[in-house]
Design goal:
InterPro entries: Ig-like_dom, Ig-like_dom_sf. This protein is an all-beta fold. It is built from one helix and 19 strands. A hairpin with a 6-residue loop joins strand 17 and strand 18.
Length: about 230
């Protein structure tokens, strides 16, 4: 007995905030002898859509008033459900679940969509600093302000990763501020200090670097900016 199953759940992983239209597609299989089909979509734990063919789909919650259902997307109720969003907003970030049920069986599948705040409004600031920790060690600090979702950070000394702790987050003038502090042994020669920022599950990256001069306690600042992973 095969029963009901979800064949594919096609939701774009990364979407620019304010863009559209965006299609979310749930493809499924229903046995010929099954009846009473109901298709539901959920955002996180909240239902946002219900379709009981031949009644037209109903949308609620975060997609209410933002979804449309062209006739061509309603032609195959027993094989796929398509939600076309005219525009996407930041509160649509998160996990989406498509669930199908009949009187005889049920199935579901879950995936994630991330709305890229920062592609429309980049992080407002990214800095790398050094200052003495004691006579033999120096503190390296990387701070990123305004990036959402929360970025991950890594610090490098002459190309070698120097992370020994997790980043921390606080708020500065209404914006999230993520910091990474690492204590390393001081050097006798100038050294290139780099901080890499990236947003998990996206291709967005940025690097900032300084040249650290231990004897004069000066740093020359340069930066590399990369979008879509091209450093």
């Amino acid at each position: 007995v095969r029963g009901s199953s979800i064949r594919a759940l096609d939701v774009p992983l990364v979407v620019r905030n304010g863009s559209g239209p965006v299609d979310m597609v749930c493809a499924y299989e229903i046995d010929e002898d099954e009846n009473g089909l109901v298709i539901k979509w959920f955002h996180e734990a909240y239902q946002i859509y219900q379709w009981i063919p031949p009644i037209p789909p109903q949308d609620i919650g975060i997609i209410e008033g933002l979804a449309e259902y062209p006739a061509e997307n309603l032609q195959d109720p027993y094989s796929r459900s398509v939600i076309r969003l005219r525009t996407v907003t930041t509160d649509m970030t998160g996990e989406y679940t498509c669930a199908i049920s009949t009187f005889q069986d049920e199935a579901s599948n879950t995936t994630k969509m991330i709305l890229n705040y920062f592609l429309q409004v980049p992080e407002s600031d990214m800095t790398v600093r050094t200052y003495p920790f004691n006579r033999t060690h120096v503190n390296l600090t990387c701070v990123v302000t305004g990036a959402r979702p929360r970025p991950s950070l890594k610090l490098y000394v002459e190309g070698v990763e120097s992370n020994d702790r997790e980043s921390s987050v606080d708020w500065y003038k209404g914006s999230p501020r993520v910091s990474l502090d690492v204590v390393v042994e001081d050097t006798l020669d100038p050294a290139v200090i780099e901080c890499e920022m990236w947003i998990p599950e996206t291709e967005y990256k940025r690097r900032e670097r300084i040249v650290y001069y231990p004897s004069s306690n000066r740093s020359n600042v340069t930066s590399d900016f990369a979008l879509n992973g091209n450093l």
